[in-house]
Amino acid sequence: MLEIEQVTAGYAHRRNGRRGRTNVVEDVSLRVESGEIVGLVGESGCGKTTLARVVTGLHRPESGVVRYTGVDVHRLRGRALREHRRHVQMVFQDPYLTLNPRQTVRQALTEPLRIHRIGDARTRSARADELLDLVGLDCQVGARRPRQLSGGQQQRVAIARALALGPRLLVCDEPVTALDVSVQAKILNLLLDLRQQLGLACLFISHDLAVVRQLADRIAVMCHGRIVEQGPSQPITSGPRHPYTRALLAATPTINIPVGHATGSVAPGA
Ligand SMILES: Nc1ncnc2c1ncn2[C@@H]1O[C@H](COP(=O)(O)OP(=O)(O)OP(=O)(O)O)[C@@H](O)[C@H]1O
Ligand SMILES: [Mg+2]
């Protein structure tokens, strides 16, 4: 579904009056199959967000290619690009920054549909209720503004908004980092449920191996812009080969976040 092939990406800079480039993602190859959750884990500053931006088409790579269903993401223009944006959505670390403080939740959820000219006011509003239900929020939340919600509720709204256009792939960049452990678990369960219900694939980015290993089918470990190890979650977390993965594991608390107990439906609240 998603193929990242030998992607190198970085930023232009100017030092002592000279222009230059620093690459922060080096020769990364990674695949996400349909319905699969792939965890990308690595320490702060190793290039995870940069890679996420390359994957979603927001940042042009220096070299390499990102293909979604076989098509080069960075060659898409116009209508094809808009279509692509429906299929691949991103969820960010801080939901408060991604939600417009002046919009009600309902407006935030219907806006993507309005922009893509889907349905009329009535069907869009019905879709907003459906989305709230999907992420385990009461439809009365629709009338509130972001600041009247808890962090966990805000992140649920951000996820609901990302789901509005029926994406096939979510790129989640540290979506639970700003939340406390119990709310983290609820959001992770929500993502597992969405995979179950919608067959949604997910590239889940985190610096926290404890979070990633509860969720991901496969894990890729990133260090200084390179993937140093990748494979099915279980072997990577029980017998890591790369010293950096071992170090990450050693730094991971042994307490388990109780993920995976939800059965089909999502617990409300949080
Ligand atoms: N717009 C930018 N211009 C120049 N350098 C940048 C820019 N954005 C990020 N960087 C640099 O690129 C490197 C990788 O940043 P990136 O945000 O991809 O890391 P990250 O793995 O997401 O980190 P974190 O876990 O803290 O979010 C860092 O050294 C950062 O300083
Ligand atoms: Mg980041």
Provide an overview of this structure.
The protein has 270 residues and is an alpha/beta fold. The chain has one domain (2-250): P-loop containing nucleotide triphosphate hydrolases (Rossmann fold). The protein contains ten helices and ten strands. The chain has a six-stranded mixed beta sheet with strand order 6-7-8-3-9-10, sandwiched between helices. Helix 4 (105-115) packs across helix 5. The longest helix has 18 residues, at 181-198. The protein is globular and about 55 Å long. The relative contact order is 0.17. It binds adenosine-5'-triphosphate and magnesium ion. The site of adenosine-5'-triphosphate (ATP) has 11 residues, from helix 1.
Label this structure with key terms.
single chain; Rossmann fold; disordered C terminus; 270 residues; four-stranded antiparallel β-sheet; six-stranded mixed β-sheet; binds magnesium ion; globular; 37% helix; binds adenosine-5'-triphosphate; alpha/beta; 10 helices
